[in-house]
Amino acid sequence: MVKMESTEEQDRKLVLEFCHLLEKSKQLFNGLRDLPQYGHRQWQAYFGRTFDVYTKLWKFQQQHRMVLDSKYGLKRWQIGEIASKIGQLYYHYYLRTSETNYLNEAYQFYAAIRGRAYYSRAIKEDRPDLMVKKLRYYARFIVVCLLLKKMKLVRELVTELEKQIQEYTTTYEPEDHLEWSLVLEEIKGFIKAEAAVAVLHADSNPIILSHRLSPLTTPPCERSPHMTLSLQEILIVGSACEQAKFSELTMDMFRMLQTLEREPTESTHPMSITHGMHGHDASPAASRIPPYGVPGSKGYLENGRHYRDNPHKYLLYKPSISQLLVFLASGFKELPPGGALLLYMSADGCFSTTKHPEDYGYELGGLATSVKRDGVEGGGIACRGKSYKENHCLYPGDLYPFTRRPMFIIIDSDNSFVFQHIPRYFGQPLVILMSPQDVPPAFQADVQHHGSLFTLFLHSPLTALCYICNVGDVPIHHWERCQSHVDRFITEASRLVTRCRI
To answer: Name one GO molecular function term (predicted).
Structure first.
């Protein structure tokens, strides 16, 4: 009897410990949304604590599954919810650090949820909120797969999501059914716009090509003593109206962020070796949490120095002018010695009616920014007077203070030319790349929705050439031959640029 009571007491303590870890993990996860989105050091310690608690929770539910099943009534969807939160942690850590390897970690957990059907009985629980969690999981998984260019899986997930949305609306007749229908249409439109040109195998099956940086796609660089700068901070801003987008990621942003990232690699860090999988109910090993780069984990410092494979990026979808300037200032502040800041902005033009401008910083107009998140009033009639400027607009003059540090500016807009007059008041390196103001009439309608031609050329020159020549399908042997010509041109152009002294 004493032994039985001892066992019961142990089980009770295990359940209490699980409940404590579960509640603590929820509190920490909910606190993530209160962290500042800018800066580097303000949020790293909090992420580290959150990863630590989820590590303990994940290991705990693996080690004591039988007790939790019988005494706590642990359901498979609850395990799926924990795995989904871990996937979100990795994805948000990728957004904050720009390290593409974290996308692979997020993918591992999201794929495990689908492979082990953790949410398969969600509809039978008669809880609409649980079905919403399942739909959100699908949407997040699709975003990760899009960024990893797993397009075959993306299409499978979209089909499954459509079925789940239909089942959700039929069963519960919810008020948000139109919102989920809109999400589905956004995803489908994004996938259609992304596939500008199809590269085909000999059997006519499409090949998915990555346009991230890798040793195979990066031209060799002749190093010289004059090369003292490195790209450290990037702002990618998408403010173009009516452009294909999904999850606050426009097509131009999607293409540009890949252009500025290195290809993710499979994790080789000892903390991310998967082990301990048993039977069909195996889950991603707890040792995957956290991997390299999380404060408090091995590998965060490499040889005593902070290791970062990619420049740090901010992704801003339709920011207000105040948000944009705050993030610019944060990137400027975080620049180390010898670091350069890159600003890419895809936006509609904000035009001026001034015929004889005297101040090129403010009298030629600029780029339209969002008005939704700003408390600033007066962007209407009062600002159209002769003495006033539009509040919700990024002017060339707004960038003058940031030219105190080396800066690379890429403007994709129908009013891009106004940025050509930015002066080098502080003698720092400054490069400004501006899109053409006009697009051939045949492409104007497509470009507005499918993404800018200028950005497409920066992302994949050969894809853009095929697109403007109305070549929709390219056999792989033709593609590789054409790509070799493009590679030779880029290699020679790179050599000329690195040798020139301005």
So the answer is: transcription corepressor activity
The fold of the 230-262+309-499 domain, in CATH, is: Rossmann fold (3.40.50)
In angstroms, rounded to a whole number, what is the distance separating the alpha carbons of residues 372 and 243? 18
CA–CA separation, 435 vs 446, rounded Å?
17
3-state secondary structure at position 149: coil
- Judge residue 65's burial from the number of C-beta atoms within 10 Å of its C-beta, 0-12 exposed, 13-18 middle, 19 or more buried: middle
- What are the pLDDT digits (tens) for 81-140? 999 999 999 999 999 888 888 999 999 999 999 999 999 888 888 889 999 999 999 999
- Domains of the chain, by residue range, sit at 2-196, 230-262+309-499
Q: Residue 198, exposed/middle/buried by CB under 10 A (0-12, 13-18, 19+)?
A: middle
Residue with tokens 């346009």: 211
Closest CA to 142 of 249, 252, 239, 54: 249
271: its two tokens: 């903390």
The model's pTM is 0.87
